[in-house]
Specification:
By secondary structure, this protein is of the alpha/beta class. Helices cover 27% and strands 15% of the residues. The strands form five sheets. Strands 8-11-7-12-13-14-15 form a seven-stranded parallel sheet, sandwiched between helices. A three-stranded mixed sheet has the order 1-17-16. The protein has a three-stranded antiparallel sheet with strand order 3-2-4. Strand 16 and strand 17 form a beta hairpin. It is globular. The protein starts with a strand and ends with a helix. This is S8 family serine peptidase. Belongs to the peptidase S8 family. It comes from Algoriphagus marincola. Keywords: Hydrolase, Protease, Serine protease. Pfam families: Peptidase_S8 (PF00082).
Length: 518
């Protein structure tokens, strides 16, 4: 049986990354300070140590030299978060105040002016400012600059207008997460398989008009919830790898069978290329993960024997923000940030589902999460999926942010046993039953093509399932706020009012959440 397990954090970035940013500075030929560059292996070891000791890695805690060295090993571009100098809580204002407001604009322009003056004074070689080629972001308070001057790092960090600085495109060596054993590597795109499979008849139920209801729907009370709500009137935004144009259930037949009166929209915010030559590469799924997640949430209650989604009458907006499940390249971080802004700006979107992430934080994407959250969106994010080699990794980014709701997967049966590849931890809010205890079979979803379902595992499917359940609750109570929906989901979960240190409030019960009877 074929399935993919979502966020596979033992990654090797392969030839596909040739489309990503290439280093634009040769340390050996252009850096007067090349002898000071910290080796990439040493930077990776520091990141690995931080992940082991704290569960995260933050650039803001690193030295000027380390940040500069990471830039030089990537594309020599620095991301700079800014704020009005007197603003004490800028993160709470992202999305509520426009970056074109005078005080924010003045902060950005002061940083740009300081960079120009400093680099000119130091006669630094080969630098470009964001407004030459482009980036003072139009919605988020960050700008990006390309330079090679180490002294510039210290200057920026001393400014009251600077919130953070981070190398834009540095990529961590994920093989360190499993001891550097190349034989155990799992490619970053290994979560991309989503082909039809031979699903045992014991793993689904045929429901009218002729759709397949996944085996775990009964465990989660989803089939019972359908008598009261099917997600009508609620729009769910999915930020992932896009939507397959070859799957009719998520295109021309989105309204078919017992699903009607709704719409599916497709956008692409991911770009390929580097710096100002980057181009959007469209909304089509070139991986399969995004199609699978969208299918779990909103695939129609169809007539052809395909899998049915949890909220089969909800609206769906698919945004291709990343090329695979790990948001680790500069272009992927840009794409996901832009996707969050796109969905944050849409008044029809209430729920955002993100079955993607990375093992450590990125401030640009975090800004975009806050942007969407501050504009009222309920954001679900995967707690993380890997293999037994990295089960020590806790809840990953952005699921570890307070603005998101972290979800992980567990096996069926009494007690709580996380799925073979799922992460858990104190930030987890909910769990979803998504792995059979005997066979380890996974839930059904819609494949990239055809009418035969695929299967999907990991905290990815748990997150998509939770997003669908939230749509059922909100559809039943359309005048509720985000906090009311979330509280109802908590109160109707298995462990409430207690909260486990690893599994949050435990397994969701869709029927109880929709009805209010627990």
């Amino acid at each position: 049986m074929k399935y993919f397990s979502g966020l596979l954090f033992l990654a090797l970035i392969v030839q596909s990354c040739s489309q990503e940013e290439s280093p634009q500075v040769s340390p050996s030929s252009e850096l007067s300070q090349s002898q000071e560059v910290i080796p990439q292996t040493q930077i990776n070891e520091l990141i690995f140590k931080s992940l082991q000791e704290t569960g995260d890695f933050k650039w803001e805690e690193q030295s000027d030299l380390l940040i500069w060295s990471a830039m030089m090993h990537a594309d020599s571009i620095l991301t700079i978060g800014y704020k009005p100098s007197m603003e004490s809580q800028p993160n709470s204002r992202i999305g509520l105040e426009k970056v074109t407001d005078p005080q924010w604009q003045a902060a950005a322009q002061k940083i740009v002016q300081t960079i120009e003056e400093t680099l000119d004074r130091n006669q630094s070689p080969k630098y470009r400012l964001a407004d030459e080629n482009a980036l003072i972001h139009p919605d988020l308070p960050f700008l990006e600059v390309k330079f090679t001057d180490l002294a510039m790092i210290q200057t920026l960090r001393s400014m009251g207008e600077v919130r953070y600085i981070e190398p834009r495109s540095y990529e961590f060596d994920y093989t360190l997460l499993q001891g550097g054993d190349s034989d155990a590597r799992i490619l970053s795109d290994a979560g991309c398989e989503n082909s039809p499979g031979n699903v045992p008849t014991s793993d689904f139920t045929i429901i009218s008009p002729s759709a397949k209801s996944s085996w775990n729907y009964e465990d989660m009370g989803i089939d019972q919830a359908w008598a009261q709500s099917t997600g009508a009137g609620i729009t769910v935004g999915v930020i992932d790898t896009g939507l397959s144009p070859d799957q009719p259930m998520l295109n021309g037949l989105f309204n078919s069978g017992e699903s009607s009166g709704r719409q599916v929209l497709r956008f692409g915010t991911h770009k390929t290329g580097w710096w100002f030559w980057k181009r959007y590469d469209g909304p089509d799924d070139q991986c399969g993960h995004g199609t699978a997640m969208s299918g779990v949430i909103a695939s129609p209650r169809n007539t052809v024997g395909n899998a049915v989604g949890v909220a089969y009458n909800s609206n769906l907006i698919s945004v291709r923000g990343t090329s695979d499940v790990i948001v680790n390249s500069g272009n992927e971080k840009d794409g996901v940030a832009e996707a969050l802004v796109l969905l944050g700006n849409r008044s029809d979107v209430r729920i955002i589902s993100m079955s993607i992430g990375d093992v450590f934080s990125n401030s640009k994407v975090a800004d975009a999460v806050r942007y969407a959250y501050n504009r009222g969106k309920l954001i679900f994010a995967a707690a993380g999926t890997s293999t037994s080699f990295t089960n020590w990794v806790g809840v990953i980014f952005p699921a570890n942010m307070p603005e998101t709701v972290a979800v992980t997967g567990v096996k069926e049966g009494s007690g709580y046993q996380r799925c073979d590849t799922c992460h858990s931890g104190s930030q987890v809010e909910f769990t979803v039953v998504m792995e059979r205890s005997g066979s380890n079979n996974k839930p059904l979803t819609t494949a990239n093509f055809g009418n035969d379902p695929a299967t999907v595992g990991g905290s990815s499917v748990a997150t998509a399932t939770t997003s669908g359940i939230a749509a059922l609750v909100w559809s039943k109570n359309p005048n509720w706020t985000r906090d009311q929906v979330l509280q109802r989901m908590r109160e109707s979960s298995d462990l409430f009012p207690n909260k486990s240190s690893q599994y949050g409030y435990g397994n969701l019960n869709a029927a109880a959440a929709v009805s209010g009877v627990y």
